[in-house]
Hints:
Layout: H1 12-62, E1 74-76, H2 81-87, H3 95-100, H4 103-111, H5 114-118, H6 122-127, H7 130-140, E2 147-151, E3 206-210, H8 233-236, H9 257-270, E4 275-280, E5 285-289, E6 291-295, E7 298-303, H10 317-322, E8 324-325
Antiparallel strand pairs: 1-2, 2-3, 3-4, 4-5, 6-7, 6-8
Helix pairs in contact: 1-4
Amino acid sequence: MKSIQRKTAFSLIELIATVIAITLALGILIPTLQAGKQYSKSDICLSNLKELSVATRIYAEDNNGHLPGPLHPAVYHHQTVEGYRLYGLPSGSNIEFHLQRQLSYRLRPIMGDDVDRAIICPTMAGIASERHFKEFNNQNNRSVFPAHYSLNNWGDINSGSPGAIGDNARTTEPRYYFGYQPPIGSTYSPIQPQRICNIKQPAKEWMIADAWYRPSPASPIIELQQDGPYQSNWSGEALPYFAPHFKRGSTKMYTDPNERRAAANRTRQTKSDGFTNTTFFDGHAAAVPSRTFVFRSFELLYGFPGTVNPEQSLFSQQVWDEGTWE
Length: 326
């Protein structure tokens, strides 16, 4: 007698249960993979910052302790003669002058062409692409080079004139860690960079960080009106208005100032910044969270904590001394 073999098949309930199980697994796995990818990008960014920091310290050792400079605060891309010809400056411009103001150009003898890789942050490249900078230039008639990092390099220059606070910046003490190079045609002399040994609290004072810019409307005190590490609104409005790493919420970039300002206010109100990857003058690098600056129970700032060495003669010094980052 032949045995009867039954064909087996999924019942409808079993099939539905299987689909649900796969969906749940994907719902757990995909965010995990995305988070892992972002961690990888952030790790590359921190590694790049460490390389730039090491090369900067080597430069200082070779130059009697002086930091490279005088430098522009933005760490622009395409910092070669050919890069300028292809990307930015009109015919007849003094390309050598602009190259000398750039960290990447000063570090090229130490790092070689690796410097071009190190000044690019993978996270920032996905947010603020080179296409965005070109669109910003076209929409606003501003010649702004792509940049992912900025230097902690600010004093009291306003429109090239020493003696006045400019661009809502937190002035450092000593001023101009990387010096100051006035524009071509200015009557003011360059300010030479500081010796690295003169910088107080090097383990806490930032050297290079993700370049993002957000002016704060919350404080009447001019040095407390800017939330991000980048200090100039001229180029700053082409940058992200938020700390980029692991940001919660929209990362859309804007060329229209009003739309950008509204998005920045939403980020501030919801405190939805990510982290600012930062390297410090002692050589270490870390992802720094945005914080709230509080003075006598009033919130004056929300963003990048900035310099631990604010310039001592500013009229806001009492605020800096008594306020706390929370």
